Amino acid sequence: MAGLARGPARCDIGAMSEHDKIALVTGASRGLGAALAEALAGRGWHILAVARTSGALEELDDRIRGAGGSATLAPLDVGQPEAMVQLAQAVLERWGGLDLWAHCAIHAAPLSPAGHIDGKDFQKSVDLNVVATRGLIGLIEPLLRAREGQALFFDDARAGQKFFGSYGTTKAAQIALARSWQAENAALGPRVRIAAPAPMPTATRARFFPGEDRSRLTPCKAEAGRILAEIL
Q1: CATH number at residue 46
Q2: Name one Pfam family in it (predicted).
Q3: Does residue 230 belong to any structural domain of this protein?
Q4: What is the sign, positive or negative, of the torsion defined by CA atoms of 84, 87, 93, 96?
Q5: According to DSSP H, which parts of the chain are helical?
Q6: Residue 129 resides in a domain
Q7: 125 within domain boundaries
Q8: Cα dihedral sign for 210, 214, 216, 217?
Q9: Longest CA pairwise span in the chain (Å)
Q10: pLDDT tens track of the chain, all 232 residues?
C-alpha cells in the first residue's frame, strides 16, 4: 500500500473483507489505544494501528491475529505532517474512507510546578497534543465523511490541577478543538464523540502517580468495552 509503513508480513490485507468496518487508532501501541484496537478487532473491524513503537505494534498485531482479527500496522509519528498526509492518501486509495478514528496519541510531559515547566517538554506537548491533532482533523474529516464515520477523543485533561500545567493545558486545548469540530459537524457529520475515561493502570498514569494502588483502577480492556458500548 503506497504511503503506509509496513513490518515484515504484518500488513496482509487479504483476510479482510471489503465489507469490514475500518478503524484508525492513533496511539494504538499501549494502554487504552491498544485495548480499543483489540476490542474493535474482536467485533470484526479491521484495525489501522498507528504508533511510533514498532515492537509494541507487532505485539498488538499478534494478539489481534491470535483472536482471529485483522490489522494493518503503521509505525509512524502523528507529529510528522508528511507521514500523516501519506497515511490519509493510502487510506483513501485502499478503503475509500474510515468508519472510526480513535485518537489516543498524546505527549504526557512530567508533572511540574507551573513556574518550572521545561520549555522543550511544553513545546512537545503543544506540538503533539494540539498542533498534530489540528492537522489530523483536517486530513481525516473527509475520510470519515466518505463512510459516515465518527471520531472519538478522550477528556482526561485534569486542567487546573496542581502540577498538571503542561499536560492539562495542552490536553484541554485538544478537547476544546474537538468540541468545536463536534459543534460544527452536528448536522453534516462526521459525528465527534468525547469520552471521559475512568482512571486506568496505564504507563502514563504510573508516571503521574507512582506508588498508587493500581488494583483499584479500571482495567483498560474493561474501559474500552464500556466506551465502545456507548458509541457503537
Answers
A1: 3.40.50.720
A2: adh_short
A3: no
A4: negative
A5: 31-42, 54-66, 81-95, 119-125, 132-146, 165-184, 203-208, 220-231
A6: yes
A7: yes
A8: positive
A9: 54
A10: 334 544 333 443 334 444 589 999 999 999 999 999 999 999 999 999 999 999 999 999 999 999 999 999 999 999 999 999 999 999 999 999 999 999 999 999 999 999 999 999 999 999 999 999 999 999 999 999 999 999 999 999 888 999 999 999 999 999 999 999 999 999 999 999 999 999 999 999 999 999 999 999 999 999 999 999 999 8
How far lies 198's CA from each of 148, 164, 219, in Å?
28, 18, 9
Look up cell 499536560; give the residue.
167
Domain extent for 189:
22-225
> Residue holding cell 472519538?
152
Which neighbouring-strand residues pair with 151? Answer: 101, 192
Strands of the sheet containing 22-26, edge to edge, are: 70-75, 46-51, 22-26, 100-103, 150-154, 191-195
Give the amino acid at 68.
G
3-class DSSP assignment, residue 114 = helix
Total of domains in the chain: 1
